[in-house]
């Protein structure tokens, strides 16, 4: 009897004879490629960006979570190679899609990268392959978009090839967890696809969490991000209310978190950044319209968080007026931190970009300093900021600004020296209070 595509692929996975293809070598794809390679699989990374190929060929990582040494080790072992030639997909037994899923300007899902990638896979699809989507999206995408495109070849899911979904859980800058140690939710189109998902990911990560369907797994990822979005919006709103009452929201949170049950601390900031929280919740709000169901909490949270940069600039303008007797339109402002979170170089959806834009819309001049981001790269929404460079953080430089706006509290900053040189500091991260550097010229926002 002929061995089925399922049995053949399962045997390849269990013996590490399967080759994995990972499409999209960004913040998710490259760390995943390293984890899969370290577990013993041969990995081919695919990306349309020739610049990434130049870096990888030079054994230079552009992702903080992957060191140059780790990259070189997998290349030397013959377990990792990268290419822009998608013809190599035909050689891969497991193909994982890690491409962007942005929003349109109207906050509708933009699945163009997923769809184009699925068509590229379809051009090389053969029996005995497992195709996995990791990109965050609305429930139903894997089965209704990816699988449909692949089945357009005439091959059928569950018999000829297999489809699964496993949401990425990367956290740039996290020193405690990495790809291989974060539990991995897995799902598949049918029991055989799920068995393959469990076998493959179980070989690469410490634990897998199987769920009943691809749609359920897609909903898990959205739920994780919506939970954070709503809670951050809550403390951002509390910040504005308590500030009007003369109450320090950070002191409130620090006291509240001493309760050993029924409370989890979240912290306010100048807005939301990263791919997950500012974008992913709107995938569910879009999908919910199909069922004529409102998503009031999600949309309200998005509105509150999106309004934070303008609120912060308002507090900056107020502080300049009261403390320096100067209008924002005549002021020079240094934005401290371009990355969306501390100690990383990731500027995706960073509120710092919006802060700079708003300051300059109001007639002020804004520069930035970030020890991790030397120059602003091209972005979809802030093309006018492309090429601006981080200024040096010297006493003379600092003294030349009317205010310093702390947007990201990187550890590589000498905050004591900053406090001595700056005439006015607007702190959106409470970093000066945390470090015992509170002063009259440090204003919380």
UniProtKB/TrEMBL annotation:
> Which SMART domains does its entry note?
UDPG_MGDP_dh_C
Q: Which UniProt keywords apply?
A: NAD, Oxidoreductase, Plasmid
Per the database record, which ranges form the UDP-glucose/GDP-mannose dehydrogenase C-terminal domain?
334-434
Question: Isomerase among the record's keywords?
Answer: no
KW S-adenosyl-L-methionine (keyword) present: no
What's the superkingdom here?
Answer: Bacteria
InterPro entries found in the cross-reference section: 6-PGluconate_DH-like_C_sf (IPR008927), NAD(P)-bd_dom_sf (IPR036291), UDP-Glc/GDP-Man (IPR017476), UDP-Glc/GDP-Man_DH_C (IPR014027), UDP-Glc/GDP-Man_DH_C_sf (IPR036220), UDP-Glc/GDP-Man_DH_dimer (IPR014026), UDP-Glc/GDP-Man_DH_N (IPR001732), UDP_ManNAc/GlcNAc_DH (IPR028359)
- The transmembrane residues are none
What family does the entry list?
Belongs to the UDP-glucose/GDP-mannose dehydrogenase family.
- Name-wise, this protein is Nucleotide sugar dehydrogenase
| Originating species | Rhizobium indicum
Organism lineage = Bacteria, Pseudomonadati, Pseudomonadota, Alphaproteobacteria, Hyphomicrobiales
């Amino acid at each position: 009897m002929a061995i089925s595509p399922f049995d053949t692929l399962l045997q390849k996975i269990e013996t590490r004879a399967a080759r994995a293809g990972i499409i999209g070598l960004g913040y998710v794809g490259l760390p995943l490629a390293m984890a899969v390679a370290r577990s013993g699989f041969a990995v081919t990374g695919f990306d349309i960006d020739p610049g990434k190929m130049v870096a990888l060929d030079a054994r230079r990582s552009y992702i903080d979570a992957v060191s140059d040494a780790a990259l070189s080790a997998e290349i030397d072992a013959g377990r990792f190679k990268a290419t822009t030639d998608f013809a190599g997909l035909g050689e891969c037994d497991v193909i994982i899609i890690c491409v962007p899923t942005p929003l349109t300007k109207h906050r509708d899902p933009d699945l163009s990268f997923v769809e184009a990638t699925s068509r590229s896979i379809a051009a090389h699809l053969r029996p005995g392959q497992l195709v996995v989507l990791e990109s965050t999206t609305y429930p139903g995408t894997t089965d209704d978009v990816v699988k449909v495109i692949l089945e357009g070849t005439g091959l059928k899911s569950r018999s000829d090839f297999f489809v699964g979904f496993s949401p990425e859980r990367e956290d740039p800058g996290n020193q405690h967890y990495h790809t291989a140690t974060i539990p991995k939710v897995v799902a598949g189109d049918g029991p055989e696809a799920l068995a393959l998902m469990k076998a493959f990911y179980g070989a690469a990560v410490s634990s897998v969490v199987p769920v009943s369907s691809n749609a359920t797994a897609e909903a898990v990822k959205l739920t994780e991000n919506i939970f954070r979005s709503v809670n951050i919006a809550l403390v951002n709103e509390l910040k504005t209310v308590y500030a009007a009452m003369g109450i320090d929201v950070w002191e409130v949170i620090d006291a509240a978190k001493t309760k050993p049950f029924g409370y989890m601390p979240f912290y306010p900031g100048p807005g939301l950044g990263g791919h997950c929280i500012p974008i992913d919740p709107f995938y569910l709000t879009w999908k919910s319209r199909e069922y004529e169901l409102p998503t009031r909490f999600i949309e309200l949270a998005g509105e509150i968080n999106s309004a934070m940069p303008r609120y912060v600039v308002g507090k900056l303008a107020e502080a300049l007026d009261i403390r320096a007797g100067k209008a924002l339109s005549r002021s020079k402002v240094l934005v401290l931190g371009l990355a969306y979170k501390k100690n990383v170089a990731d500027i995706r959806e960073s509120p710092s970009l919006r802060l700079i834009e708003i300051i300059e819309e109001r007639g002020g001049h804004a520069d930035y300093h970030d020890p991790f981001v030397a120059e602003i790269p091209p972005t979809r929404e802030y093309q006018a900021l492309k090429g601006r460079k981080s200024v040096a953080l010297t006493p003379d430089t600092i003294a030349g600004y009317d205010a310093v706006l702390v947007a990201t509290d990187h550890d590589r900053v000498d905050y004591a020296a900053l406090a001595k040189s700056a005439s006015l500091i607007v702190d959106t991260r409470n970093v000066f209070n945390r470090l015992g550097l509170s002063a009259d010229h440090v204003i919380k926002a």
